[in-house]
Amino acid sequence: MDDIEILNSEDTSEAPPHYEAPPVIERVAYLFAEMTDEAFEKNRESWKSQVKSEFPFEDPMVQWRLNIKEEDGVPMLDQVTPELKITDRFYRKREDKGKESQAKSDFDFAMRCPQGRIELHMGSWPGSPRSFQTLRSECAQWFGSWFKTFQLEKPNKVLLHYVNLLRKDTTPNLFDENGALALGETLSVFAGVPGEHAHLEPPFDCKVGLRLNGVKDGKMRIHVVDASAETGNTAVAVRVHFFAEAGLDAGEGIDKALMLLDWCHERIVERFELIFTEKAKRTFHSVP
Amino acid sequence: MMILAPNPTTAESQSPVREEALEEFRIGQSRSAVFTKVEPKFAGSYTYDRSVVALEGGRVLVHLRCPLKVILNYSSREAEVEGWGLRFPISETGSLPEKLSRRFLLLFSKADRGELSEQEQGDWINVLDQADYRKFCIDRAAPQYTEGIIVQRQPNFVRVQWHDGETENISFPEAGALNDLQKGDEFSAFVRFGQNMTPLSIERVAILSVGE
Asked: What is the ipTM of this complex?
């Protein structure tokens, strides 16, 4: 998805392709650390004042969370432990909002700070010049100060999450004149569905977890899911999630966490190349 | 896990689909369902996931002994913190931490002045049942003027005899305020004491007489 410098890779002979218009719409980097309730509340205001100049808009994320239990295979609401979760969230708006399509989100860059982790969410859009390096430089700026402000002892793990969206306005060349997404010709996991059929139909939901070698607790998940409901069912849309996670050992700090983020990015790029078909990747406009 | 996202946001797309994909990756739950609106069937009691209420920008903390219950009332479009006399529109739920701080401070202040109404008295009793009030009082206590003498200095503690004859080993980082003092120095300072009269902070140190 991006051109990156390969570090500690088994094969450094060939850099991954760089695309002009990859379908990635959001990249998220997470840093986790042990944090007590007390440390969180004690330093929350101080952290807010630090981030305010660069993330001027505050919009806490409210989640009313319900558990689902299964009885004889039937999913049912479990009323015992519903939970209200409020997450501090700060963001910047896109400066070019209004100059282009109004349908675009004005989300540009957001920071979420629940207890025990910091998340940096970076938006992208077709033609966006943003890459992993943009996100990484923000991580280098904020991870250390978050760690210091909350007086934490050691980081636990990092997680990188890429959201790719296949929708007519983001990847028009993957849709036919009737607006149908040729999923079987786009994602290799769907290309080999056995039997004869005219085309694939929603809902799509395919996920796989992978345990990776090379780092502590390295793991990955790829999740392809129908996102048509987000468009009000007016258009077919599919999200392709890539998650990669790596753990830190005792004594390792923020520098190591940033190196592990690089490692996670490399793993996601590798899988991106394998998951999307050659036909799909041609539509992302590979740069020689 | 189901995640409701009742408030469309101006920030990044709060896609419940995406939130659940993350939850599934992190905690390994496989079942997912997505609702984008609060519906009548979701009305009921929710456990608030934080156990500390911060006052004065985090300088004073109120520790809750048990999780707070927030009642979601679909028909009135309001939420209520059970037992706190705190009710607000569902759309304002994001500022619940600040609302709790203000409510606690208001009840505390009125109780201090003896101005609680009958209803507020009931709320305050409930709040005191749920909160560690003793710890709150200690955290909130102002520093006291105290005099003492340095009895012994060690790498990891300083032994002090207070003016009332009690001696105490003060460990770091609190003892850091006494770094400029030597054995035998008599000093004055403003000290904030915690449980068992353990110093929580020492400030405004002055030397009254020089020792050895």
From this structure: 0.81
